[in-house]
Specification:
The structure is a homodimer. By secondary structure, chain A is mainly alpha-helical. Chain A has two domains: 366 residues, no CATH class; 144 residues, Transcription Regulator spoIIAA. Chain A is built from 25 helices and eight strands. Chain A has a six-stranded mixed β-sheet with strand order 4-3-5-6-7-8. Chain A has a two-stranded antiparallel sheet with strand order 1-2. In chain A, α3 crosses α17. Chains A and B meet through α8, α18, α20, α21 and α22 of A and α8, α13, α18, α20 and α21 of B.
Chain lengths: 589, 589
Amino acid sequence: MKTTLRVPGFLRRYLPVLEWGAQYNKDTFTNDTVAAVIVTIMLIPQSLAYALLAGLPAQMGLYASILPLIAYAIFGTSRVLAVGPVAVVSLMTAAAVGNLNLAGPAEYAAAAIVLAFLSGLFLFVVGLFRLGFLANFLSHPVIAGFITASGMIIATSQLKHILGIRANGHNLYELVVSLWEHLAETNWVTLVVGVAATAFLFWVRKGLKPVLLRAGVKPRMADILTKAGPVAAVVITTLVSALFRLDQQGVAIVGSVPSGVPPLTIPSFDLDLWSSLAGSAVLISIIGFVESISVAQTLAAKRRQRINPDQELVALGAANVAAAVSGGYPVTGGFARSVVNFDAGAETPAAGAFTAVGILLAAMFLTPLLYFLPKATLAATIIVAVLSLVDFSILKRTWAYSKPDFAAVAATILITLGFGVEAGVSAGVLLSILLYLYKTSRPHIAEVGRVPGTEHFRNVLRHQVETDPCILSIRVDESLYFANARFLEDYIYDRVVGNKGLKHVILMCPAVNEIDMSALESLEAINERLKSLGVKLHLSEVKGPVMDRLKRAHFLDELSGKVFLSQHQAIKAIQNECDAESETQTLAV
Amino acid sequence: MKTTLRVPGFLRRYLPVLEWGAQYNKDTFTNDTVAAVIVTIMLIPQSLAYALLAGLPAQMGLYASILPLIAYAIFGTSRVLAVGPVAVVSLMTAAAVGNLNLAGPAEYAAAAIVLAFLSGLFLFVVGLFRLGFLANFLSHPVIAGFITASGMIIATSQLKHILGIRANGHNLYELVVSLWEHLAETNWVTLVVGVAATAFLFWVRKGLKPVLLRAGVKPRMADILTKAGPVAAVVITTLVSALFRLDQQGVAIVGSVPSGVPPLTIPSFDLDLWSSLAGSAVLISIIGFVESISVAQTLAAKRRQRINPDQELVALGAANVAAAVSGGYPVTGGFARSVVNFDAGAETPAAGAFTAVGILLAAMFLTPLLYFLPKATLAATIIVAVLSLVDFSILKRTWAYSKPDFAAVAATILITLGFGVEAGVSAGVLLSILLYLYKTSRPHIAEVGRVPGTEHFRNVLRHQVETDPCILSIRVDESLYFANARFLEDYIYDRVVGNKGLKHVILMCPAVNEIDMSALESLEAINERLKSLGVKLHLSEVKGPVMDRLKRAHFLDELSGKVFLSQHQAIKAIQNECDAESETQTLAV
């Protein structure tokens, strides 16, 4: 007898594995395995390279690509997201840990583990409390600017490996100065290896696909093969390096990488370390989450699947905690590898788990083979990968579309380049919020009149419209709240004072989605002052929820004028009143 | 021959004195002088009391009421604003300078002078660059909460003078604990003087006016006489104190106050001191400006005059710099004294200058008479003055009107009481901005349908309306920007996925005042994904400026559907399309 396992709803929410796992079959298994093999091949050099970028021992890159993938497979809602070390997060890890002035590599690695742990905790808590919307305050232009600037910093930081010199710095200026100072120490053999690897990888990226297509390879397969370029570069340069003993020529090689399963690591509970890494952990988490969720949503949409952002936070949190307890460092969903996973036909998160097995095997048996791998090759894979992220077109597009967005991008790029990644992204977020607040604090206010022969009311400056000297109709194109309440007051007083014939002001509110307490008090003040000037205040086209509140606050009882459903009705009614008044005056004369 | 002096425009903007000064005549002089005499009498005890509150020597209160008034008379745009030391700014000065752990009274006074100087510079610069709108980010509820909590702290801080004990603290908790610890040291003679003075002042405030009115005094005069209560209290208690030598009974008296003109003081240019006071100076400036501009605008409106907020910043900046160079401390336009000035008939800022002369005479000749003045009397005048500021009704009103406003007020009051004035006002501003951003990040989105027989479209949840299974009409009640772009994406995907018969989505945009770059990219993504699902995206009722931008960004070229002037036109056109499609399907069957 077959029994169906009934899974409680909350378990299904927090453990998506229960849902797709129940429908797992042989076909899915085959597809997932194929995808996993391809992603594993791609991930081995990447993991090593990004660990190098983060300033960590090579094996930490591998460790960060094992347990975190299993954790994501259990908790994640994306079917194809490939989790692991990524370029920007590795750079941010280097910056965060580098700022601490630690004693040696062991402390450095320990700090990276704490960073992963804090980042995991933060993501987990944010996900549990469904605060994922916070990531929305990173605007698209700020993200684009940040990624471009980070790509430039990353590429520049890898030049030292290509040149075979020492150099360091967390921003472009420091890096360039440091490179310049050490330029004379360039190791020419390293430079040849580095330039050859870089050129080869660029060619694979741009030139290999047409060749393969002409040779009859199917487009999808050709795409996947071009992603294997880094593996080829690793194999070739390692062989060359070993055969010619390039290490004796001064070429930096990876050297001995410990073999075996990831160690069980317990993050240090040093509160000083925690507090000095907390800010960086938050930034890394947010940036990592935004990168991950963007690629997950893009790929899900292609297969008409849904991503649950809050559960994604929980899953990435679990992945980072998993990284912290298994000798890894901060991870997130990577763009390039997820696309490869998707293209290679992965169907469920099990593909990620199988990839983890592949990387585990590499960590156990492959590391001795990497002894002679030149660091210049890894640097070349990083440079080629990140230069594709550098895209200044966002500057042009935002300039054409919206100056505040342009300002936010430009500031993000400049501050990231000049002061490092953390300063850059913080400044970008802050500036975009300030610019938004500034815009809403000086709302667009239009004086409107009737388009002749219609019931439409339009801006007097943009259209030929009819107005009445007895009535001033004003449309405010913004919610009224504390930041713009006084602006509206000033605007109305400016327009009313000295305007002798004026008897009525109509505030047209179709775009007023909210009137907060400060704005309500401003409206009360406007009403009072206009009353003392013998001018009535009317409202028109007030939205339902706003109206409910105004009624509750008894504002409508005090209002000198009336509230009209439409501007048209308002003008009709008030013009009659004006006519009656002027008749009375004429009679009085 | 009479020549008219021609004043260049920019001079008239920055020196309002040139305008009203040109029309000055004997009548104005008489009115201003009468007002000045009344305000001077009121200001003498106040200046001494607020200096005491700020923890400064009594004469600094007088000095702060001389040159700053002249400066405001030259630069200010309000005809009746009375500038000088006020309660809240004095409390903030005490908190700011008290935080520094200075050596002695001389350093304390020097720091207060620096604070006035920095505050003056800040106000001046903000005014020159016309950044006065920044003050708008202090919402009315936050101000109300802050004033109420400050009033409570000020009143509590003065209890030590009434009890004749030592006690200190910058928040309510510290103050209460400190008072409790020293309660046993209460000086009973001081307590009798303090309670008697407080009771007398309360009676003057509440009970004197009816008595005067019954005695035939005119209402306006009665109002002004009640403001002279503090002077009477000062005179009576000083006489009692001198006659009975209360100082020998342990009653704290003001003691010898130096006589003479204000000293010329040069603010210390100690950069450490500057940087530790800069934050406080900014807060004091903003709070002071808000208090001042509110009363100036209220009084100007009564006489149909206009206030220029940016010039007010310049004027208050000049007043504070004047305070700094003449031995004073931070000043601003006070509420009570400005109302008295107004009621007493002041017509031009010259009244302020005449008041300055009055205080100067007091500083030169009156101070020996203040020798026996009990500090308890000054404390009583402060307590009675600030308790009128304490008003918890704002909690009730915001609770009824808007929960976010309530949260901002409650947080401001609690944090001010618990952690002091600077923390309180900062938290209030930050929280109100965050709540506003939160609200706009989750905008109200309504599915709308046609009210039968009309061209009106309303929320399907609020009204009986007609909809079409082929069309989803959505109205977003907020500008689209980075913080809510993804929210809209999620909302639309949630509504569209699994909705089989759906062929068209119409986004109704009458309340969309802005679409920033992030939102544009979200719209592009929505358009793309809907297209891949075979659903068209249409827009209706897009505002002119928003439309201009969308055109510039070529979004309209990519849009799968159309843009309609009105929702009514959209529904008519699309329903035809739906009908045509279903006919085709029927024919195909």
